[in-house]
Write a structure and sequence with these properties.
With 338 residues, this protein is α/β, with parallel strands linked by helices. It contains twelve helices and twelve strands. It is globular. The N terminus is likely disordered.
Length: 338
């Protein structure tokens, strides 16, 4: 009160009122909200959770201005920045097991089991011709260069090509050649690209780690031996024709060939997922986000693309749990205007 009276006398404001309020509003420091960045991690079918996270952040007024994505995170983040979330949501919710298999254009003689042509055509349906420079948010998709292992930040050029390069899972999808470099899945080098979001100018970085719920992974079993396994019961399969035989061979690629032996694609993807989990832990420890959103996706398999409704709901729940922490971080990082 004493300071207020001094100000009144100094500026001849008499009793204060509206004039005093104007003075206070003019002299009080002004602040701007920090630039929010969002790092969307890789995780195959679990990535549909990113849709739920983005829904909640947008509804709560924390829409990101910077988006960095790896693999499925690049796809969801790219569609968000392009204003194409609703077509992506409709596509994801319309997937069934049969439709997922129908999108897998298997081929021989390539660098992967799947050429990726069908998925490319789906992306081009809504994103054809769109350049990264035209997006609403600052955006980068992370890829890995074959041979050198360079971490490549795709920040210009065709959005569709950037997405394809970022999700080109080694051994499953053919690598993508861009600008003279053969590129593959960015999760090999940066599964949750917090560093990218910071480098692109974000003041506050949120991240979505799709593997945070993988409890029991990466422990050390200190005493283990090759004890004899019980003899498996041999299942008698009925005779099948050509189509049935092909179905059995496909089961050996994408599922379990026989008994409990995993299929080829299952082995490659799980090995990749273990590597990704270890790299994520290391990189997040070295450059932690301001807030990590961790959907509880342990029961959603890497190939469960048909369970989008469940993954989206789990993403929403995780983001809602983090809103108080996000609000506190954003408030603490408001920046003074010059």
């Amino acid at each position: 009160m004493m300071l207020e009276n001094i100000a009144r006398r100094a500026f001849g404001l008499g009793g204060g009122g509206a004039a005093m309020n104007d003075l206070v509003s003019e002299t009080a420091p002004r602040f701007s909200r920090p630039r929010i960045g969002l790092a969307l991690g890789g995780g195959a079918a679990r990535g549909w959770a990113h849709i739920g996270v983005l829904d909640v952040l947008t509804e709560a007024g924390y829409a990101p201005e910077v988006i960095a994505g790896t693999s499925i995170g690049a796809v969801v983040g790219g569609c968000y920045a392009a204003g194409k979330m609703e077509p992506l949501r409709e596509f994801a919710l319309g997937l069934t097991k049969r439709r997922v298999v129908g999108l897998m254009d298997f081929h021989l003689g390539g660098a992967g089991l799947i050429s990726g042509g069908r998925l490319k055509r789906l992306l081009e349906r809504d994103l054809a011709g769109l350049q990264i420079s035209e997006l609403k948010q600052t955006y980068a998709a992370v890829a890995t260069e074959l041979g050198t292992g360079h971490e490549i930040w795709l920040t210009r050029g065709s959005l569709v090509d950037a997405l394809r390069a970022s999700y080109a899972l080694p051994g499953v999808f053919d690598p993508v050649k861009l600008g003279g470099r053969w590129l593959m899945d960015g999760a090999l080098v940066n599964p949750v690209p917090v560093t990218v979001a910071r480098a692109l100018g974000a003041d506050v970085v949120l991240c979505v780690n799709l593997n945070s719920d993988m409890t029991g992974r990466g422990t050390v079993i200190q005493s283990y031996g090759a004890d004899a396994d019980p003899e498996p019961a041999h299942e008698q399969r009925p005779a099948v024709g050509w189509f049935g035989g092909m179905r059995e061979r496909m089961r050996g690629i994408v599922g379990k060939a026989n008994n409990d032996q995993p299929g080829l694609a299952g082995v490659m993807v799980d090995a990749f997922n273990i590597t990704q989990d270890r790299i994520s832990r290391s990189r997040l420890a070295g450059d932690p986000p301001d807030v990590m959103i961790g959907p509880k996706l342990g029961r959603v398999g890497l190939f469960d693309f048909h369970r989008a409704d469940e993954a989206i709901a789990l993403g929403r729940q995780a983001a809602e749990r983090a809103l108080d922490e996000i609000g506190a971080i954003v408030a603490a990082n408001h920046l003074p205007l010059n």
